[in-house]
Amino acid sequence: MRILFSGDVAWRTGRDSLALALPEIRRLHGSFDFTIINCENAAHGKGMTDKIFDEFIAMGVDAMTSGNHIWDKPAFFTTLDAETRIFRPANYPASCPGRGHGIIERKGKRLGILNLAGQVFMPPIDSPFTCADALISELKSQGGDNLPVFVDFHAEATSEKQAMSYYLDGRACAVVGTHTHVQTADERVLPHGTAYISDAGMTGAHEGILGVSYESVMPKFTQGLPCKFEASGDGAAFNGVIVEVDDDTGLSVGIERVQLKTEGLT
Asked: Helical H runs in 123-207?
């Protein structure tokens, strides 16, 4: 099984970049069994809309994970509740719209998805470790012991992300970090077969500050003043990873970082 994952798709620049990147990545790297993206910043930097959801599906996206901003646009709650192809962090209260885990299927292959959020420097929520124990067991009870389970861990601290990767080593096919928008260079397969990277990075404008124009952010840092973030349109690029999973074991045999500049692609 081959999985393509894009880190946080941010703002319109990220959406446009994803549309350009996916055909080129498929040309360069071949086909994928599943294409997954993190979509929590897709709608003007915060949240999602029905229109954008449909755009991503039309691009060939099979599943979408998210994070703490997925609830920023209440008009999307109905779709978040109804759709089985989009996930929100599972360790938020059960009363929150959406689902945090599930099994997706495509061309006879099945993949478990688990979305978690961190606790360190993040809003107060339940333990992602306890949640992972319960929900990975549930997914494997539904799909079999060798069901590959892909985990998007939306967290701030690299230490917490690394701890999760070792905690789930041998139980998840991948633990991929999101949220910081900066791709890390620590991709590896752990001893018991879990692929890991601290952060897959961002698909969006890289000439700016986390997808935002530096001019709109600087007053906050230099003067402590409130400011309105404005999207950057410069340095558009795709950031993500390709994960290779052994079909027999449901565990990983490889992980590769992907960085692709999309300016100039048509």
From this structure: 128-143, 158-167
**In the β-sheet with 174-178, what is the strand arrangement from edge to edge?**
101-106, 109-117, 149-154, 174-178, 195-197, 188-189
Is 0.90 surpassed by the pTM of this model?
yes
| Domain boundary assignment for the chain | 2-261
Of 38, 35, 31, give the one whose Cα is nearest residue 15.
Answer: 38
Q: Could you read off the pLDDT of 137-147 as tens digits, one per residue?
A: 999 999 999 99
Residue 122: which H helix or E strand, with range? Answer: none
pLDDT, tens digit (0-9, with 9 covering 90-100), for 3-14: 999 999 999 999
Please give the angle made by the CA atoms of 117, 120 and 123, to the nearest 5 degrees: 60
Q: Identify whether the C-beta of residue 261 lies closer than 8 Å to the C-beta of residue 237.
A: yes
Tokens at residue 170, please?
């041998």
Q: Which two tokens stand for residue 132?
A: 């992972």
Whether residue 69 lies in the annotated active site: yes
DSSP 69: T
Catalytic option among 44, 69, 181, 192: 69
CATH architecture, domain 2-261 = 4-Layer Sandwich (3.60)
Instruction: State how far the Cα of 210 lies from the Cα of 215, in Å rounded to an integer.
Output: 13
